[in-house]
Structure formats: structure tokens, C-alpha cells
Amino acid sequence: MDIINRSPFSESTLLWRTLVNVCKLCGDLNLGKLASKHLLDLTPDEAGSYVLVSNMYAGEGMIDEASKVRSAMKDLKLSKEAGRSWVEIDNMVHHFVASGTDHPESIEIYARLDLLRDEMKGRCDSKADLDLIYESV
């Protein structure tokens, strides 16, 4: 932590978000708590930071702590905007919103995602790999 605090990037939210995420992936809750405090001090009005910290706790089975972070987010009236993606296929642009069902082929898309998720699940070596899959799909 000392090296970060002495660096010219100690106020970088990207650095602290990255550190919280790495702690989550590696299961280093002690460092993750410290990094989370710095992150939330730097970005008290950014919902994404609270979601990241909450997910770190939830990933370690600390549901009460995750709930406290989500409650703080709610008390501050913060909400995270859904992720959006655009894909061009055969000169046609398809727009997707995370967990959305507006696309005319959403049933087929989610069915295919379920198959891909099951296939990837069978190829994973660790819980961290599975967590990445579930966050990404």
C-alpha cells in the first residue's frame, strides 16, 4: 500500500478499482478492504465503485458486508447504469443492454449464452475462473 500512496497515481480511481478487483480475484480481503476504503473516499458519488466493493464481499461469502455497501449506495441514491454494447453483423448494428430483452432474437441469444456458459464452466480450473465467466456473460 505504501508504494501506491507514494506514487504520482495515488489519487487515480482506476488504480484503486484495479486493486480492489485484483484483491477480489485473489481472495485477499484484508488488502481489498483497505483499497475499498481508498476507492470509496475518492469516488463517494460513483455507483460502480460501490458495486465493485459489494461484489468483492459477496465473492468471499460476506453477504452482510455486501448488503451494507449496497444499503449505503441506496441511501446515497446512487444507481449503476446498465452496460450497453453495439455489434455490427452484415452491415446491421445490433444494440444490447445488459440483461435486456428488447432485441427481437433475445430468447435465442440467451439460450446460446446458456450453452456457452455451461461449456466454459466445464473447462474452468478454479472458482476465480467461474466468477469471471459469470461476471462477463
UniProtKB/TrEMBL annotation:
Pfam families reported for this sequence: E_motif
Question: GO biological process annotations for this chain's record?
Answer: RNA modification
> Entry's InterPro entries?
E_motif (IPR046848), PPR_At4g14850-like_plant (IPR046960)
Task: Write down the superkingdom of origin.
Answer: Eukaryota
Q: Name one GO molecular function term.
A: RNA binding
What is this protein called in UniProt?
Pentatricopeptide repeat-containing protein
Q: Which organism is it from?
A: Salix purpurea
**In the record, what lineage is assigned to the organism producing the protein?**
Eukaryota, Viridiplantae, Streptophyta, Embryophyta, Tracheophyta
